[in-house]
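Module 6 notes. Inverse folding takes a fixed backbone as the condition and produces residue identities as the prediction. Think of it as a translation problem where the source language is geometry and the target language is the twenty amino acids. Below is one complete input and output pair. Work through it position by position during the lab.
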């Protein structure tokens, strides 16, 4: 059974940084795009960043562009979300997901496997 696990969340002050990890098992990891999403309770899940299979392409939501960076290490079956200059409005549950589609997308319907989420809280 495929497993996708997001980790690394926590509490951080505004202006601080966190790095989230997304590790997949029982999956041909370098055959999948990886996306990062976040969700605030009561709101829709928002796509914030994605990276293509061999890291050739990345895509970001305007809300995080210039502050967040997606990367991956296929040898470790792991993708990362580096979050810098965090703001209170970045507080959310963060999810990673794997997609077998042909391109890097920020829409949830493109993704086949989802992790369980990791909470990020940014205090002011």
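Target side of the pair, the amino acids:
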């Amino acid at each position: 059974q495929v497993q996708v696990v997001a980790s690394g969340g926590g509490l951080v002050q505004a202006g601080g940084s966190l790095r989230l990890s997304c590790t997949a098992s029982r999956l041909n990891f370098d055959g999948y795009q990886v996306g990062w999403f976040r969700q605030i309770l009561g709101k829709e899940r928002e796509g914030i960043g994605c990276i293509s299979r061999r890291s050739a392409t990345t895509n970001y939501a305007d809300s995080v562009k210039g502050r967040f960076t997606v990367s991956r290490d296929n040898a470790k079956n792991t993708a990362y979300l580096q979050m810098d200059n965090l703001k209170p409005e970045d507080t959310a549950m963060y999810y990673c997901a794997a997609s077998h589609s042909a391109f890097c997308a920020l829409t949830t319907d493109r993704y086949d496997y989802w992790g369980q989420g990791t909470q990020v809280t940014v205090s002011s």
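Reference fact for the lab report: The chain is about 0% helix and 50% strand.
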